[in-house]
User: Fold this.
Amino acid sequence: MADRGASALSLPEDWPAQPEPILALNRMGSFDWDLDAGLFHMDAQAYTVFDLLPEEYDGRPESLALRVPPPEAARLDAAVARAIKDGSENYGVYFRIRRRDGSLRWTHTQGYIRRDPSGRPRRVVGIVRDATEELADSVSRTLRAARNEALRRQTGIVQTVSAALADARSVRDVIDVLKDADGVRHLGAASLVMGLVEAGRIRLVAEGPAGASVPGTRITRTAEPYPMSEVVRTLTPRFIESPQEFADGYPILWPHITDLHITSAAYLPLIAQARPIGAMGLLYDDRRGFSAEERAVLVALGSTIAQSLQRAMLYEQEKDLAQSLQQAMLPRTIPSVRGADIAVRYRAATVGGTLGRDIGGDWYDLIPLPGGRVGAVIGDVQGHDTHAAAVMGQLRIVLRAYAAEGHTPATVMARASVFLHELDTDRFATCLYAEADLSTGVVQAVRAGHIDPLIRHSDGSCRRAPVEGGLPLGLSAEFSRLEYPVSTLELDPGHTLLLCTDGLVEQPGTDLDDGMRGLTALVAEGPADVRALADRLIRLAEERGGDDDVALLLLRRCVPEAPRAGGRLRQHVAPGDPEALTHARHLFRAAVRAWGAGDRADEIELATDELITNALMHTEGSAIVTLRSLADGVRRLRIEVEDSSSALPRRRDAGENGVSGRGLLLVERLADAWGVEARGGGKAVWCEFRMRRADGG
Assistant:
């Protein structure tokens, strides 16, 4: 322990002339070493430092070997020789002496080398003092610094692990943080094991690195003689400070972990709300024992992990409940629809990691309707909670019921809006209802504040299909004032109708139109198969994340294998509705082409117009128009117009200047047959057209 950086002694030539009193006051002794004579003179205090009596010392340096052990003497001589050789003016060395009682004491000496004009060393003068307390204080400071550093390191471990666990949303997330190599390294341990308490047993759920657990201990009872079982029973941490203590305390377990070279271990109970939920073991291969501070830090670490586990368990329970509720509210199965391929998907959003918020009001539904028609529904109730899901479930059911009753799409939407308004809730909903006739490809769509659908063509191109919109559902209770215009779309064979909620489109900071354009491009680039396309879209939504749930419904009209033998279309036409007749024409024209009577489309359209006009002009209330394709020997198209009046129509001569009266004459001239049937509270006027065969017959 040479102290060669000490400053040179500023001593006069005649030193040590009377230095003893000053040095003695500082408990220092002095010496004067005559290198030529080989004599080492010491004062009284120096004798005290070396624990020698004057009569025990002959003045020769070699005689100090009585107090300086050989290794210390060799180190001291080497330091002095090095200083003399390299021309140094001074040196300083810490060495130990053995006192007469056998105890070792640290001593410090500092010498000043005097040389003659030629540079030859002639004399060494200096001091010697007891340095035991000094070094003890230094060692103490070093130990304290080491302990403080260890405490800071352990505290840093807790902070690091706590930060990593802050984002854990499930038990698996907690386990992944702890069991991987980085997690074990952050904990300062060589290996880790963790188990959860389940019905009086401890199930091992994590080990790091792999293979750190003992075979046969995957599931153990809390009464068994294992350290994790012990800390669960006693709710007290167990610190094992040596291999022998481990072997003595757990003789069954110890032989199985000797290959891990464990030197100490800490087993911590994981306690939440005063009950054990699990236990964790940290095994070390580079330390023995635990200071009080380290134990406190490890206990705090166990508390942090327990809280994270409990939070994750509660989150998973809430998530299971939310998902069960969501699944109960959504349709259990989607019916198989002849003439269409259907795919539906749902993705729940997690809003800020809040428990119970990964459920929403988005829904889809598919409603089989008479005559080969099908109703497709997509909607979104405001909010992300169980209340939104409950409202969604009720709204889905009533909308399905209204559609199944045979109401027009506009009426279905209006009635659903009134129902939601009267539900005594502050929630509103957006919705899109599309009623498709798969035999003709005619789609009647109604939109209540929702985003437009998309149509993907058979060639892969995709476009937005604008649908006139009305108010979101639930904002008005006056049925008579609710207006939901109907838009008619055509879905050719091989085309796909896509309905979705805004969670698939909207992103923070982006415009809705930009989102629709982006979705259109994704659909165009996607696969033709509706299930594969749905999977791709929902996967992209999951990767993108976001705080909104997503509902998705894809309906692809199949290419018919053969012409259909029959079909049915029905349309309500309200008086005073200028668009009703236009929609009916569009609907029936497409149906006539689909059923193979395109050559008589003009005749059928004109006859239908006349029958509808007669019903609206000469009766009160709306008319119900039905178009049927019949195949009972001879293929025919039958048009029926029902009204609520029991008065039968009369065929009459309009006169040369008359503006009315020609309707039934036209129907008689155009159709192959016509007639009137009484119906309950009214009547139906019908006409039929024979359909020509492909060979012209």
The chain has 17 helices and 27 strands.
